[in-house]
Recover the amino acids of this structure.
């Protein structure tokens, strides 16, 4: 398996634009997580899904953020409209709820909003 | 709110010395995990310890868990320059089937 795949790796956009981050989890994993990492706030859990269903989105900062998981092999995190304070590295991770529950991370998307 | 908090925030030691990092958490857990992050990369899982375990070893890593104190420690023995990274503890709360919450991390620097 290629691991968790995120795209794009880097994104630079202007304030007010819509940004869509994409994630392909590891095949067979049934949990998917979106995290945001900044120097100031560390690694924050934004939202996680079990079996494609959003379970906890309490970490989503504002209504400008939305996440979907239309099927077991794809998820998106959308920011509309984007703001400079959204600049961060966004990580997607997946895990299995059976057996060991370790999370496997993608390489992240570095988002810069100017 | 974050579940785990690491201590110290930063640690610098000489190559060959042992490095110890601590983690405290707030609620009952199913298990506790340690991860490593190299600069500019995603996190990589190192070791998992279940709530009914007290100690676990993996190579040069030793993890302890004290559920009465809600704390864990990660010991890296005979440190190497390649161990330079940030280390995070993560907890799977007992109340959640799969939610994984990370602490603030310890930045470890190994001096050659």
């Amino acid at each position: 398996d290629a691991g968790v795949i995120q795209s794009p790796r880097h994104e630079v956009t202007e304030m007010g634009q819509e940004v869509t981050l994409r994630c392909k989890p590891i095949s067979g994993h049934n949990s998917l997580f979106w995290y945001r990492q900044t120097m100031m706030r560390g690694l924050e859990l934004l939202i996680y899904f079990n079996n494609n269903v959003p379970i906890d989105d309490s970490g989503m900062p504002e209504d400008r953020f939305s996440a979907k998981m239309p099927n077991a092999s794809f998820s998106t995190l959308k920011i509309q409209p984007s703001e400079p304070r959204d600049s961060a590295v966004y990580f997607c991770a997946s895990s299995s709820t059976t057996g060991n529950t370790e999370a496997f991370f993608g390489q992240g998307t570095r988002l810069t909003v100017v | 709110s974050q579940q785990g908090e690491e201590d110290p925030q930063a640690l610098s030691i000489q190559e060959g010395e042992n490095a110890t990092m601590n983690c405290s958490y707030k609620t009952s857990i199913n298990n506790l995990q340690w991860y490593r992050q190299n600069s500019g990369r995603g996190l990589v899982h190192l070791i998992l310890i279940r709530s009914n375990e007290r100690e676990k070893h993996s190579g040069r890593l030793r993890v302890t868990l004290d559920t009465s104190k809600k704390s864990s420690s990660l010991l890296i023995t005979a440190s190497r320059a390649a161990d330079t990274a940030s280390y995070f503890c993560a907890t799977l709360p007992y109340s959640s089937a799969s939610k994984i919450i990370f602490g603030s991390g310890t930045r470890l620097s190994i001096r050659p």
User: Anything to note?
Assistant: The longest strand of chain B covers residues 29-37.
